[in-house]
Amino acid sequence: MPVARSPIAIAPPEAVVGGWAVSARRSSADLVLVDCSAMTTVALRARDSGEVARALGVTMGRAARQRWGDGSVPVLVVGSGPDEWRALGPPGTLDLVVAHLTSVAADAAGDDLVSVVDLTHGTALVRLTGERSADLLAHETAVDLSDRAHPDGAALRTAVSGLAADVVRDDQGGVCSYLLGCERSSGQYLFDSLLDAGGPLGVDVDGFASDDEEPAHVR
Amino acid sequence: MTATRRLDPQPGEVIDRRQRLSFSWNARAYPAFAGDTIASALAASGETVFSRSMKYHRPRGLLTASHADPNCTVQVGDEPNVRAAHRLVEPGMDVRAQDAWPSLAFDVKAVTGLAGRFLPAGFYYKTFIRPRSLWPTYERVLRRFSHGGVVSPHRPGSEPQRYDKRHVHPDVLVAGGGPAGMAAAVAAARSGAQVLLVEEDHALGGHLRWGDPVELASLAELRDEVAATDGIEVLTDSVALGCYDHLEVAVLQRGLAHVHERLVKARARALVVAPGLIERPYVFAGNDVPGVLLSSAVRRLVNLYAVRPGDRAVVLTANPQGDAAVADLERAGVEVVHVVDARRGGDVVRAVGRSRVRAVELADGRRIDCDLLLTAVGWTTPATLFTTAGGSLGYDRRTARFWPDAPRLPDGVFAAGGVVGDGTLEQLVEHAGVVGRAAARRAGAGSGDPPVVPELPRNPHPELFRGRTHGIVDFSEDVSSRDLVTAVQEGYSSAELAKRYTTATMGPTQGKVESVNVLAVLAEAIGRTIPEVGTTTWRPPYAPVTLGALAGPHRDPVRRSPLQPWHERNGAVPLVAGAWIRPDHYGDPVAEARTVREAVGIIDVTPIGKLDLRGPDVPKLLNLLYVNRWSRLAVGRVRYGVMCAEDGVVLDDGVTGRLGEEHYLTSTTSGGAASVWEWAESWLQTEHPDWRVHVTPVTTAYASISVAGPRSRELIARVVDDVDVSADAFPYMHVRTGGIAGVAGCVLWRIGFTGELGYELHVPAGHGLHVWERLLARGQDLGVRAVGIEAQRVLRLEKGHLIVGQDTDGLTQAHDVGLEGLVRLDKDDFAGRPELVWRAQAADERRLVGLWPRDEATVPAEGSQLVDAAGRLCGRITSSRWSPTLRRSICLGQVAASLAQSGTEVRVRLPEGGFAAAVVTEHLAAVDPEGVRVRA
Amino acid sequence: MILIPCPWCGPRDAGEFGYGGEIVPRPDPRTATPERWRDYLYLRANVAGWQTERWYHRMGCRRLLTVRRNTVTGEVRPAAEAVER
Question: ipTM higher than 0.90?
Answer without folding.
Answer: yes
